[in-house]
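Predict the holo structure. Ligand: 9MR.
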Amino acid sequence: MLRSALPIGVLSATILLGGVALSGSASAEPGPAPAPASGQPVHYPADSLRALSARVGLRFGTAVNMDELGSNAAYTRIAAEQFSTVTPENVMKWQLVEPNRGTYDWAAADRLVAFAKDNKQLVRGHTLVWHNQLPTWLSSDGFTTTLSNSELKVLLKKHIQDQVKHFRGDIWQWDVVNEAFDDNGQPRQTIWYKAWGGLGYIADAFRWAHEADPKALLFYNDYNLEFTGVKSNAVYDLVKSLKAQRVPIDGVGFQGHLDTQYGFPDLQNNLQRFADLGLKVAETEVDVRTFTQAPPNENTPTDPLAPYAQESYWSRALKACLAVRECISFTPWGFGDTYSWIPGWFDDPQEGAALLYDGNLQPKSQYYVIQQDLALASGAPHRSGPGAGRD
Ligand code: 9MR
């Protein structure tokens, strides 16, 4: 049943215009079973987010928590049925893949790639160059290290090439460089910035990744690009200069960590101006947090009206992507408020309730708004290029 938050007039329009009856079931009912070339048929509902997005060539993804995938049946079923791309929330980060210097552990990431293949999903690789979640043998804080600059250069090249080669052919989009700028639009003084004596590490990282897998789409990924301002402008100037130098960059990821206490950003214009540089764009880590009660009710908004603001933010974030032809994927940063990074990170004051599914993995009103937007999106420009047009 559709939630009362949906205006009735819009609901009937959905059924007429969209041609898809929205069952309101976000999980269980099997829909058409497209037959993959090999392997098991994949079952997912015709009104799933992945099926509805595919009609305009958009991929609708999610970050995946590998502690839950496979062991939590409801979680695993939703991950397979609702999404056409998956992003490892943590398991492809350097700290996880090379905890001890010289010894790789790909097990969890390989399991996600296998899951994606089984479910006809593409994979966003996340992330190759970052200052967070580095192994302690490399750096404990991302800004200091005992290793020399020349050693760091050799290590970064090896890390990128070993990892990209390991997953060669299996990754649709790589987040090659993540969060190289701070909130003031200044380059972060990370171990990479210091080793190169500037931002030159970014061009090298893209070139090395491209050598290792020429078919993967290579992205720069960051937060707050959604808002026009010093940070968005700094990243715009960076990627413009990378394009001018013929560095193999294909796209820019707008993380989209939104909060109802701030105004809704100038997202569509920012997506469009980056796209106008000849780049793909994507919303890569969307969540919409709001003020919530103290634990154990950290996912219950303090203001009972907050979910309406959240619905609006989700809807506008999706529509901004739909309106820009070069926006090829829309990815919430997980599903199920219990698994979100938000309550643990923003706890004074407490925030949470940021995803489309609640703590019991039941779809929230935000889910139904997004589902309806997708059902009504047949007039949006159809996306093209590798990975688009199918689900
Ligand atoms: O969701 C991730 C969380 O589980 C990790 O503890 C955290 C470590 O910094 O990283 C989170 O994911 C981040 C992503 O990799 C990059 N953009 C910001 C995300 C939220 O912090």
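Residues 1-19, 27-37 have pLDDT under 50 and may be disordered. The longest helix spans residues 149-166.
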